[in-house]
Design goal:
single chain, about 475 residues, alpha/beta, D-Maltodextrin-Binding Protein, domain 2, 2 domains, seven-stranded mixed sheet, five-stranded mixed sheet, 20 helices, about 15% strand, globular
């Protein structure tokens, strides 16, 4: 309709900014004490100090000393962020490990229900003798605990000749998220990503014979899907058809990566850069042309009903998508795509990691032996079958041929692992990621004009600077 008077838009912008400040104040009040972002210089000296002295007396250059007597009956405590499906699988695995492990190690497990509760509870436990031995946490939590000297460097364990792991068998993008300088602050426990889902059958009827590989293709297909809604006899679907907007932080971040932008420049946060402006401008223009739309009550149902040619979901939702297509009687073929970038595509990978907290040699070794067992192919396979996420090791694919046959979209996602990208390997990403999602969602909620997106990015950059100080 009518262009809005600029003045009114100014007020909206002020509102966004005040909302940002509220978010900022909330975030910094809970986390001011704990956020530390070492500058590159001091990170180097830190990691140099850490690597020059081995963590514990018994670890020689390449030999973990496993004291069988001390391990027998040794109890280790594990805190998880899970409830329901993952938690029951994990409890079953713990039971199996306790029954079968040759050392007599006894693992106790406690659910902290979700990541933010796990983070708060663990951080509160650090100065006490109640801290757990193993935490399944986000990499950014691990980075913070490592910066504060309570999470240990796992390199000596991973690289041990007898008790180590073959890192060649793990996907690089999964392993590298937990690297801090020269140190390894965690090992991957779960990895997933947000993807674009695309209705191939409908795209074919619209005249497209392949999936979009460039940003222009993506726009063309989205707009064509929208046009088809204008041409049919139903007025109520006239705004539908294209990309169904998703405002989660990982979606915003993946789009920024697709345009060659991102959140960092030389390990400092930098949101206000040309590539990020191009990203937000493109996305807002897509909405202004009605080639993208928002506020579907059930995105998956909209996708199955051909109200959106593209939606954005993470891997754990693929089984729901298949179920919904079946329940509405759709025979359409849908596929999993990375975010288009005029090349092979890209998507941000994320997920939890195993983090060992400092205790004593024997407990740390016992905890490592449990992690090593959890990362065996057999357990990796069970995680995939239960959670539908990525396998952590490429060799596990040999055990998953039946699963692959019945889950073709999962296999498409696995084939895209080489296109996976890291998130910032920094403790402060914990809060800055939330801020990114908030800012991205505000931009859509108040319909910021495409010409004004730089203001949003400038505000993000200021907030990021405050949060990472």
């Amino acid at each position: 309709g009518m262009p809005r008077p600029y003045k009114k838009y100014n007020i909206t912008m002020k509102k966004i900014i005040s909302l940002f400040f509220i978010t900022t104040i909330l975030l910094s009040s809970c986390s001011a004490e704990t956020i530390t972002t070492p500058t590159a210089e001091n990170a180097e000296t830190q990691s140099a100090e850490k690597t020059s002295t081995p963590e514990s007396g018994s670890i020689s250059t390449n030999q973990l000393e496993v004291n069988e007597e001390a391990l027998n009956g040794l109890q280790i405590n594990v805190w998880t962020p899970w409830h329901e499906v993952e938690q029951s699988l994990f409890e079953a695995l713990v039971k199996q490990f306790n029954n079968e492990n040759q050392w007599g190690i006894v693992v106790n497990v406690q659910s902290q229900v979700n990541f933010s509760n796990l983070y708060e509870t663990t951080t509160a436990s650090l100065p006490t003798d109640q801290r757990p031995d193993l935490v399944i946490a986000l990499p950014e939590h691990a980075h913070e605990w490592f910066d504060n000297g309570v999470a240990i460097d796992l390199n000596d364990y991973v690289n041990d000749a007898t008790y180590g792991l073959d890192t060649e068998d793990f996907y690089d993008v999964f392993l590298n998220q937990d690297i801090s300088g020269d140190a390894r602050v965690g090992m991957p426990a779960q990895r997933t990503a947000q993807f674009l889902l695309w209705n191939e059958t409908w795209a074919d009827e619209l005249g497209f014979d392949s999936a979009p590989t460039s940003i222009d293709d993506f726009e063309e297909q989205s707009c064509e899907a929208h046009d088809s809604k204008l041409k049919d006899e139903f007025a109520e679907n006239d705004s539908l058809g294209g990309w169904l907007v998703n405002t989660e932080s990982m979606t915003a971040y993946s789009w920024m990566l697709a345009f060659g932008g991102g959140a960092l420049e030389e390990n400092n946060y930098r949101f206000m850069k040309p590539e990020n402006i191009d990203t937000f401008k493109f996305l807002r223009e897509l909405s202004e042309k009605n080639c993208a739309w928002q506020s579907a009550s059930d995105p998956i149902l909209s996708f199955a009903n051909r109200e959106a040619l593209f939606i954005t979901t993470s891997m754990e939702e693929f089984t729901s998508v298949a179920r919904v297509f079946a329940s509405v009687g759709s025979r359409d073929v849908w596929k999993v795509l990375p975010f288009p970038n005029d090349d092979e595509g890209v998507m941000a990978v994320y997920g939890s990691s195993y983090v060992i907290l400092k205790s004593n040699d024997d407990s740390q070794i016992a905890t490592w032996l449990f992690i090593k067992w959890l990362l065996d192919n057999e357990q990796d396979k069970r995680f995939v079958e239960t959670t539908h996420l990525f396998p952590l090791r490429s060799s596990t694919l040999d055990l998953l041929s039946d699963y692959e046959r019945t889950h073709p979209q999962w296999k498409q996602a696995v084939d895209l692992i080489p296109q996976g990208a890291l998130q910032p390997q920094l403790a402060s990403w914990r809060t800055i990621k939330i801020m990114l999602g908030d800012g991205f969602a505000h931009m859509y909620r108040v319909n910021v004009p495409s010409g004004q997106v730089a203001a949003i990015l400038a505000q993000m950059e200021n907030t990021a600077k405050e949060l990472s100080e």
